[in-house]
Amino acid sequence: MTQSLKDKLVILLLAALGTAFMVTFIAIEEQTEIFALLLVAAALIVAAAKFGVIKAISQCLSRNEKLMNGAVIAAVLVVVFWFREDHFPLLMIATVMMYVIACFGLNMQFGYTGVVNFAGAAFFGIGCYTAAVLGDTSVPLLMVIALGGIAAAIIGSILIIPVLRTRGHYAAVVTIAFGLLFRTFLEVNDTLGGPQGLRVPGMNLFGWDFNSNIEISENIELSFYMNYVILALIMVILAFVLMRRIERSWIGLNFDAVRLDETAAACFGIDIKRWKITAFTLGNFLAGTAGALYAMMLGFIAPSNFAFSDSLILVSIVLLGGMGSLWGTILAAGLVVLLPEKLQAIQEYRFLIYAIVMILILLFRPQGILPRGLRAYIPGWRG
Amino acid sequence: MDVGLLGQFVVNGMMLGMMYALVAVGFTLFFGVLDVIKFSHGDVLMVGTFAGFSTYLGLTAIGIDNAFVQLVGVLVVSIASMALLGAIIARYLVLPLKSAPPLNTLLVTLMLGTVLRESIRLFYPDGSNPKHFPSLLPTDAWSFGSFTLRADSVILLIGGLLVIIGVNVLINRTRLGLAIRAVAQDEETAKCMGINFKMIVLLTFALGSGVAAFAGVMNGLYYNEINFGMGLLLGVIGFSAAIVGGLGNIYGAILGGFLFAGLQTLGAVALPFASAYKDVFAFAVIIALIAWRPTGLIAEKTSERV
């Protein structure tokens, strides 16, 4: 058997395994069974790492990137269609996807360019509120998603001057202050619903109402969340492609240079301000689009959804996955969103557990669970 | 505006300023010795207030109901336990990350703040509801026309002022303060001069956390209500105050604290629109000030090393 054929088989096997795991994980309800499943998965991963299987697999994956991406999309589609009639699992999957998009935005800022942003939930919220305000007007709703992103980018541009002029702790306080300002503003502003929040009309695409179940024939009826899952999946794919293209282009190279050493980058003629503005605006745009779709799906938003702790969750996802690592972000978003939902026992304690896990990660594995690999300068070259 | 109301705003603003300054002093001390931000500071303050509250409950339970003894007990327990907690945090979370990127330290302590906050909410008896903090200070009041000055406000203000002066004297006039300043200026040289670096760092964190606990008790005595979330906003405001004043400078912290309280009061009194926007106004001005003076009003004295 040739190397490439073996690789393909491995990837297909992995995708099947992942699909089976996801389906079982989402389907089972019994708390002890969920714990058992998670323990088995953790044990398998630790064992695989011990015997060098993980390393072999990751090499195999990096050789067949296109096949891997396709296999993941196929796996997600299988999982989604498995739960075609159940509202709650689909809602969870869609939520994970929207967190992934928002965290891609943060990744562009934190992970690629090193611009700190502790107001992720605020930019997500700007998208949500844009959807709520524009939802009842005649603006096409697909456009509203883009406008949510644009609104986040525009409002974010208020922060550009302070973010550019400051660094480190000073920049952190600018975004933290903005996050608090945003939430306080929403709570006291009556036109935007005050603390009670606003109702958001659902998505409607060319007369196709997203908020009613899809009836294919008499006995096949799909949950209406399916609409949102598919749309979110398309957005995740687009965002992923955008992030990958940027990362591998000269723009990404400039981003990396700015993050690693501003002084050296400036000496080589890289315009630091330009790249920081690009990353900051583009990141906020992504968070805003995710927010707009999220608001349409939930149908209701309130200022309490955009607290400082929510921004912290977004930052935790980025750090947990590994700065700048896209697959890491996807994995971490899944863990952070799904685990508390599945483990009802820990629901009440979820912030406590996040915080403790994050402290342990930062102390013992600061690079995250799937760290971003080194840039390969020559395509196909393996060091 | 009526003089009495104005006087009330001034006293209230000064009280807030004093609390913010006390919190900001902690941030500035930690930044001075280690160049780190300990973001759990506000939550340490909150835990300190709850420790004081528990002491009060304990003292009442064993039959001591003299307000003065209770007050001393509350202050001693609260300050001592938080000084210890501050030193423990420094020893086990901040020092191990000394060579990590500053963002990691900021995040670790942010997360620690969440741990403290959630622990109080989940594990303190009925912790998710606000608690009534007792008034342990004399409640006499003097009235000047329409303005009423309460004795407890005056005592709290004087107490806060004494603590700030005390910290200042400690930093500028004692051997310990000399060591702290030496470590802040240059760690390596300070070590060469025989200063026990680790000891000084732990003592500084203990000092800052003790001051925060004092601010927390002050907050409880003034508002008579404490809850598990009070530390987050106080921490963020104290951090902003320290930043606006200029990190690593104790006068900057005091200036920043009073500036922020002044902005809030101004927002409540003088803004044409609703006073509900006072925090929005204060944070917006803070962002603008940072944009104008990126390293604080009293700038850091270090030059950038390339």
UniProtKB/TrEMBL annotation, chain A:
- The source's superkingdom equals Bacteria
Short name of any one Pfam family annotated for the protein: BPD_transp_2
Q: Does the keyword Transmembrane helix apply?
A: yes
Q: How does it sit in the membrane?
A: Multi-pass membrane protein
- State where the protein is found: Cell membrane
> Mind listing the UniProt keywords for this protein, alphabetically?
Cell membrane, Membrane, Transmembrane, Transmembrane helix
| GO CC terms of this entry | plasma membrane
Q: Which InterPro entries match?
A: ABC_transp_permease (IPR001851), LivM-like (IPR043428)
Question: Does the keyword Iron feature in the UniProt annotation?
Answer: no
Positions of transmembrane segments: 9-28, 34-54, 66-83, 89-108, 115-135, 141-161, 168-186, 225-243, 282-301, 313-339, 351-370
GO molecular function terms attached to this record:
branched-chain amino acid transmembrane transporter activity
Where this protein primarily resides, as one coarse class?
A: membrane
Q: What is this protein called?
A: ABC transporter permease
What does UniProt list as this organism's lineage?
Bacteria, Pseudomonadati, Pseudomonadota, Alphaproteobacteria, Rhodospirillales
UniProtKB/TrEMBL annotation, chain B:
Superkingdom is: Bacteria
GO cellular component terms listed in the entry, alphabetical order? plasma membrane
Compartments (UniProt record): Cell membrane
Keywords, A to Z, come to: Amino-acid transport, Cell inner membrane, Cell membrane, Membrane, Transmembrane, Transmembrane helix, Transport
Recall the GO molecular function terms of this protein's record: L-isoleucine transmembrane transporter activity; L-leucine transmembrane transporter activity; L-phenylalanine transmembrane transporter activity; L-valine transmembrane transporter activity
Sequence intervals crossing the membrane: 15-37, 44-64, 70-94, 153-171, 200-222, 228-247, 254-274, 280-299
**Alphabetical list of InterPro entries matching this protein:** ABC_transp_permease (IPR001851), BCAA_transport_permease (IPR052157)
- Membrane topology designation: Multi-pass membrane protein
- Please list the GO biological process terms of this entry: D-alanine transmembrane transport; L-alanine transport; L-isoleucine import across plasma membrane
UniProt lists the family membership as follows: Belongs to the binding-protein-dependent transport system permease family. LivHM subfamily.
Supply the PANTHER family for this chain. BRANCHED-CHAIN AMINO ACID TRANSPORT SYSTEM PERMEASE PROTEIN LIVH, HIGH-AFFINITY BRANCHED-CHAIN AMINO ACID TRANSPORT SYSTEM PERMEASE PROTEIN LIVH
Q: Could you tell me what this protein is called?
A: ABC transporter permease
- List the top taxonomic levels of the source: Bacteria, Pseudomonadati, Pseudomonadota, Alphaproteobacteria, Rhodospirillales
